[in-house]
Amino acid sequence: MIQKMMASTLAAASVMCVLAASQTSAQTIPSTPGWTQLTNTKIRSVCPDPAQYPTIQGAEGCQAVVTNWNSAAFDTTRNRLIVWGGGHNGYYGNELYAVDLSTLTVKRITNPGLPSAPFSPCQEAIAGGSQPNARHTYDGLAYMEHVDRFISVSGDMACGASTPSTEIWTYSFASGSWQRMSPGGDSILMGWDLLTIEGTAISYDPVSKFVFIDNKVGILTYDIGSNTLKIRNNQGGGYRPFEVTTIVDPVRRYLYAIGGGQMWRWDISSITSSNTTGSIPNPTRITSSGGSSIVNAPHPGLAWDSTNQRVVAWSGGNTAYSLDPTTNVWTAHTFSGGPGSPDQNGTFKRWAYSPTSRAFVVVNSIDRDAFALRLSTGTADTTAPTVPSNVVATATSASQINLTWNASTDNQGVTGYRIYRNGTQVNTTTTLQYSDTGLSPSTTYAYTVAAVDAAGNVSSQSTGASATTQALSSGGSDFQSRCNAAGVLVCKGFDNASEFVPAVWPASGIYGPDSCANCRMPVQDTSVALSGVSSLKFIINGQTSSNMAGSLRQYFGRSFGNNSTFYVQFALRYDPNLVNINWAQQMGTGWKSVMFHGPNATCSDVELTTVIYYDHKFQHMYTDCGGRGIWSSQSPPLTFQQGDHNCSYDAVESGNTSGCWKYNTLANTWITYYYKITIGTFGTPSSNIEAWYSVNGQPYKKWISIFNYRLNNGTGPSNDYAYATIAPYMTAKNQSVSHPTAYMWLDELIVSTQPIAAPGGGGGTTNPPPAAPTNLRVQ
């Protein structure tokens, strides 16, 4: 059942009216390989009568249903190709057509919605708001088998001026009605509205049951169950040409984008029906051979052959091409009597595969019959693989269980394995292992595995294996109780999908990185968490600029000015690359992790920043956009760290950092940071800055202990402290330098007006006492 849609969803209106009679046919598709012209399947024969529908004809009439950059989707439930399109000022009709491969007929299954769209102004909905305006669909159509719905994403609408749609529409074959979805979730990426980019391409993934959307700025998914969009990958924009078509390989879990001279592939194996927030790796640009006519074509026809487990393409003439996903070699299949030249604006998914008929179908023009192509003959393979054996389940954390098993055998070869959790399929894989993430702590899960062969035969499910996820670590088990304490203004555990939705300035939330090819958005990581089921992960790739990993911006809930105190607590975890790479060689300085600041700039007189001191692997703090350190003095002899440490300038410059707290020995370890900022009167030496850290819940140690310090605010109350920005920000990072990918994780963020208890089990106190100040100097 589809869950409740957003409040803006419009009531659907029935469009099942008196329809054009279908054309009949007594022919069949031969069992031998080759092309078959499906006579009496011209769409023109069932187009709306211009005399009856004069207002929808536009400049081109019904022929625009195919010629105006329009696609189709194959309805596997009814074994038919659904064709839809129009758009701009070429055609205003929004009717649906079906080429039925069971009856080998063509039919118009809806009538045009009236009143149709006006020439100006352009509008999203017609027919009283119940139906979508006609549009250039590009590669924006798909069939969602699990809910029996046809889906349209974006497109260029029918009106006088080119106007991209910002909507998703679905058509229910059961009820015969359209529904405007107005999805929630991610809406903006790198300044682009995700659904307004011309040439958006989509493909349905039957494994995750998500629709993958490639909009040239990034990859996102649409989940009709929750009616939400989710950014899955951000390549930095402009990576591919306009002329691609996309297709999902559900066995090997690839998403392909092919056309316009390029071929790209994403690994989508991490995305499952239960992984609603995870990301996918960057795409690989593929250099293939044997299929240049496909790769170079504008919007080639791409289809998934579920019988032979291959992507098969057509872009005109007598030849179709199948792709070997291992070697990236295209194999030509040529038979006489083909459909002829493709439409000049592309084929898209008007080329499709019918699992029922075990044949391909293509619609190339409304004035030509549809064509079918059968590639192989002979007795079908009906032998299922052997059952996978020795399935072992092992819990590795509070949110992850790993599976291994022994290989199956098959007379034609095993192509993959289906993973079932508690009786429901959650993913497929081509290997003999699988990591199930995003699980709940202290919970038992049961698993089985089934093998699949190239013909789609599936073995029986294996003997079950169970495992119980680990309990939450003691350091994070009391997070909720800390959040419920008096004075708490902000509590973020990074376990809810809403916490990973990109924000729009100046709201709190996740913000994107610089516009560079390898820069990445922060993402949810369900495999690493201090408490709960996930954390926020920052990705630091090589050949990136200063703000390469994005940031978290958090409003305190109020501002803090003269004579006020605020407390901030959060946990960070660094991977070995982040703590061991010599970042100073790239930047000439250190990198920042957290900044407390006013509502606008993070670099100003209202600023308290934690930063790594060059490449000495220890942290210190500064203010005034780096103009003054939070040190015991502003000239030697000074100390970068105080309290439980004596990290002095003289010792550091002589190579002795033994008195410093250094983070480079703490890779893959959760460190809880705790700050107490006591503001006296701005501009006078009356403020105190204190900071502690706790490693894996151990007792707090103090590393910043500065009293009677001058904090400035030259602007006034409108610029008081009110925000924290957390990010691995590397000022002047050299974008030409390659380095291994590094990661930083964030969890358990609390902001309060009162002291915050130490993480449970660590022996800390509710309000860590300040160490006696030593060697301090009034500023």
From TrEMBL:
The keyword Protease does not apply. Keywords: Signal. Residues 1-26 form the signal peptide. This is Fibronectin type-III domain-containing protein. Residues 757-779 are annotated as: Disordered. It comes from the Bacteria. The keyword Nucleotide-binding does not apply. Residues 387-472 form the Fibronectin type-III domain. PROSITE patterns: FN3. InterPro entries: FN3_dom, FN3_sf, Ig-like_fold.
